[in-house]
Amino acid sequence: MRVTIFGTGYVGLVTGTCLAEVGHDVACVDIDQAKVEGLNNGLVPIYEPGLEPMVKANHAAGRLHFTTDAAAAIGHGEVIFIAVGTPPDEDGSADLKYVLAVARTIGRHIERPAVVVNKSTVPVGTADKVRAAIAEELAARGAVIGFEVVSNPEFLKEGDAVNDCMRPDRIVIGSSSAAAVEKLKRLYAPFNRNHERIVVMDVRSAELTKYAANAMLATKISFMNEIANIAEKVGADIEMVRQGIGSDPRIGWHFIYPGAGYGGSCFPKDVQALRRTAEQHGYRAELLGSVESVNERQKGHLFELIQRHYGGAVRGKTFAVWGLAFKPNTDDMREASSRRLLQQLWEAGAQVRAYDPEARHEAERIFGARDDLVLCDSAYQALAGADALVVVTEWKQFRSPDFARLRQALADGAIFDGRNLYHPDEVEAAGLAYYGIGRGRSV
Ligand code: NAD
């Protein structure tokens, strides 16, 4: 099938590549000329496991094209995806300017019937706005061309996006058009082979499904962080509590890890946007408000533990920071907890030596050159001259450090473990002070 995808970010590029991988003919459009040029020269702008070789192979095979020429790309696709960003607006609601700009571009250039598929995460009612924007442009040029607007929210996880795209848990299609649903079923048939994964529903339910999924996941995280904070106060260990509740299948093991707060480009903005949508419809979403405020507080928790350890005297100290990305296996630092921590450390007059396996270039872009930040090439290099270690992202390579080496390297011998990677006994046996999240024995 001939497919066009607007936006070559985490969602658009992965989706386009996976569709090409199963044999579709995909044109990816972006307004970022440097990105498109890079992709045409084999430069993949994001880190996503498995993505780069797949992009190169499909590009070389002529099934995956990159262009800034929107008109030509619209001419190419019988299915046209919108996968551009929907960042938070000033009031927290989703800013639809990129989505609607693409809709207008489609309206201006479309020459034959197509199915327009919205993959961006957008508030309920956006499909109507996309439809209206396309129709307006068609009317302006006196064209009568049939088109459908379908909602097909994306559930891939950064860090495992290719795998999620190739083996999705479910594919949600929101549409009232049987023909459009049929077309998408054919498009997705290669990903839907051994059991039924496609869930067809009305457009509004599909739009809400995406927010419900992210809000549920964010709620689980904030819930566990809340219990972790209680555990810390009452002298209980959240890791024991986690093991005590996860075995209940009604609760489950997934997403019950306490930590330094959730970040990334989705949970924070999507919880906020869902709250705004509810407000706009006269409903106060109290639980979602709490999920957000617990997370905001949690992002400052590591710094609180540091302050507590040093009795507030952090000025002049040097902290090794392991992990800058908002989670492992990605280079994405949008809304990452590390950003809050670094800001707090700098404001308190501390120095940072940071290491992240993939996010170095993002950190350079975000922070620029500054005297109080050294970006290091390895985890152990970050320890040189450091007083204490803070673990912010749970990359696998941080899981089993040589604690004796850490003891030698860290002048103040303290570890602040924002992801509960270590066992307090093991760390303390090496002569280090240990602070985790919700590990009551450490207060
Ligand atoms: P991103 O910021 O990584 O990429 C967006 C891309 O769209 C950029 O390359 C930008 O240049 C391009 N763009 C903007 N306007 C354009 C236009 N008019 N024409 C062509 N390209 C244009 O965004 P992302 O992380 O891929 O997210 C895209 C959408 O998918 C968002 O709504 C997001 O909420 C949703 N989503 C993201 C994830 C995720 O893990 N990142 C998961 C599921 C859903």
Automatic annotation (TrEMBL):
GO molecular function, one term: NAD binding
Protein name: UDP-glucose 6-dehydrogenase
All copies of domain UDP-glucose/GDP-mannose dehydrogenase C-terminal, residue ranges: 320-424
Pathway noted in the entry: Nucleotide-sugar biosynthesis; UDP-alpha-D-glucuronate biosynthesis; UDP-alpha-D-glucuronate from UDP-alpha-D-glucose: step 1/1
SMART domains: UDPG_MGDP_dh_C (SM00984)
Positions of the catalytic residues: 266 (nucleophile)
Gene3D superfamilies reported for this sequence: Cytochrome c1, transmembrane anchor, C-terminal, NAD(P)-binding Rossmann-like Domain
Database matches in PANTHER family: UDP-GLUCOSE 6-DEHYDROGENASE TUAD
InterPro entries according to UniProt: 6-PGluconate_DH-like_C_sf, NAD(P)-bd_dom_sf, UDP-Glc/GDP-Man, UDP-Glc/GDP-Man_DH_C, UDP-Glc/GDP-Man_DH_C_sf, UDP-Glc/GDP-Man_DH_dimer, UDP-Glc/GDP-Man_DH_N, UDPglc_DH_bac
Function: Catalyzes the conversion of UDP-glucose into UDP-glucuronate, one of the precursors of teichuronic acid.
